[in-house]
Every structure is written in C-alpha cells, then in structure tokens.
TrEMBL record:
Keywords in alphabetical order: ATP-binding, Cell membrane, Membrane, Nucleotide-binding, Translocase, Transport
CDD domains assigned to the protein according to its UniProt record, in alphabetical order: ABC_PhnC_transporter
SMART domains in the cross-refs: AAA
Gene3D superfamilies assigned: P-loop containing nucleotide triphosphate hydrolases
GO molecular function, one term: ATP hydrolysis activity
Residue stretches spanning the membrane: none
Occurrences of domain ABC transporter (ranges): 2-246
Name the record gives this protein: Phosphonate ABC transporter ATP-binding protein
Pfam families: ABC_tran
Record InterPro entries: AAA+_ATPase, ABC_transporter-like_ATP-bd, ABC_transporter-like_CS, ABC_transpr_PhnC, MetN_ABC_transporter-like, P-loop_NTPase
Amino acid sequence: MLRIDGLTKRYKTGDQALKNVSFEISGGQVVGLIGPSGAGKSTLIRCVNKLVEPTSGSISLNNREISSASGGELRRIRRRIGMIFQEYALVERLTVMENVLSGRLGYVPFWRSYLRRFPQADVDKAFMLLERVGLSTHADKRADALSGGQRQRVGIARALEQDPELLLVDEPTASLDPKTSRQIMRLILEICRERSLPAVINIHDVELARMFVDRIIGLRAGEIVFDAAPAKLDNAALTRIYGEEDWKHSASEEEDGDPTILVKHPDLQRLEAVV
C-alpha cells in the first residue's frame, strides 16, 4: 500500500507545487492523476521516490517510510519502485535486452553492471517479460531502432524487471498515437491486475483515464479537488479541476508544466556511466 499524508512541496522560487496532499492506494489499484498545466502531477510522482525532495509530509510504501529515507535505505526502497517515463528514458545505443536488464542495477554489484554480466535468472526473467509485453523477437535490436510504442513496452518490461511493489508512470501516452496509447494503457492495467501491483499514472488524456484507470485524482494548484471513480468525473468535476469550459464539446486537458527539472532515475545514470 502507498500512503501519502500531508505532502507539500515548495520550490526555492516560492512556487508551491503541492499543498497538503493525502491519499492511499491499495494493491492492484490503478490511479490516474489529472489536472491542468502546473497542477503538480509530475511533482507528486517524483516526490514519491524522492527524485524531488518534499518540503513536508510523509510518504510510505508497505509501511516503509520513503520521505525520511536516505543513503542505502533510500536505494533499497527505490529499487522496488518501477518508473515508466514519458520519453522512455532508454539508453539508445544498447539493445532491448540490455535496457530491460538495467532494471536489475539496484540489485547487482557494480562489476556485473560494468561488464554487463547479469545472473542467468535475471536474463531468463527479462526474456519472459519481453514475451509478456510483445517484444520477444526484438531482444537484440538497439533501442533507437524501435517505434515509440515499442520503446514504451521496453520501459514497462524494465520497470517489471525490478520486482516492483509500486509503479509510477509519467504521461506514458503523450508521444503516442491514439491506437498505441490504448494498447499501452491496456497493457499497464492488465499487468497491475496480474501482479496486484498498485500504480499511479500521471495522464493528460482525460478520456483515456476514464477508460482504463480504477480511480481518478484531480489536482488543481497543488491540491486534490476530486478523488473518485471515473464514472463520477462529470462536467461539474471537470470544471472544479480545470475551470470553466464547454465540456459537452471538449474534455481535453493541457500537458503538465510543473516547474520540475527532469531528473533521470539514479540507476539509469549508473548504466550510462559504464557504457
């Protein structure tokens, strides 16, 4: 279970991205974060694994405190949090298999990652995951030879290679066409069901959120203004989240523009340092 209590983030500029945000997510539940530009969606996701340092409040995963963790304890917690990025965050010159195996960097000694000699059990699991995401014939392809949808599938497999207890997903369909977007959202939902894996998805497409997630949390100016099942996201709720609009004709939202520097996951930085 992910538990967030009183989470607040204020930047050095004085901008307050999150204001006393609190909610819980149980195993297998897929939650979609929606809201206008600057609402705090990306900041919230990055606070959960401390790619952004919260100003105050607490975050815990399965009764392990994240917000106060540091050093080795933080590394141990992070390796159980799978992150899927909008821009895929793959190492382009590596193969699909090597990118998936990078999900084990938090578990293996440095010399193994430097020589790219992962335990056979990790390799076998990577092949299984590539089969699950529909890329079993692409293991030896370079990442830069893949389509956008295929790259996102590699990102999903890499996150699952970590044996995560939580998935954090940052705008997984923003760069994809409508058909591929549905396929990716369906795949994430199916995997979460299979593994009883909770997930938080920052998603800018309201209609996709309505179709695929179990619960929608709407943010506006850093505060939760909606938290309910997708069926309850009516025109009045959309107005609370986004402001006045003719929702009968348009239900689209703007992309998130949080004042957050895009920070690569520490394990990805480690992989790039040795290739």
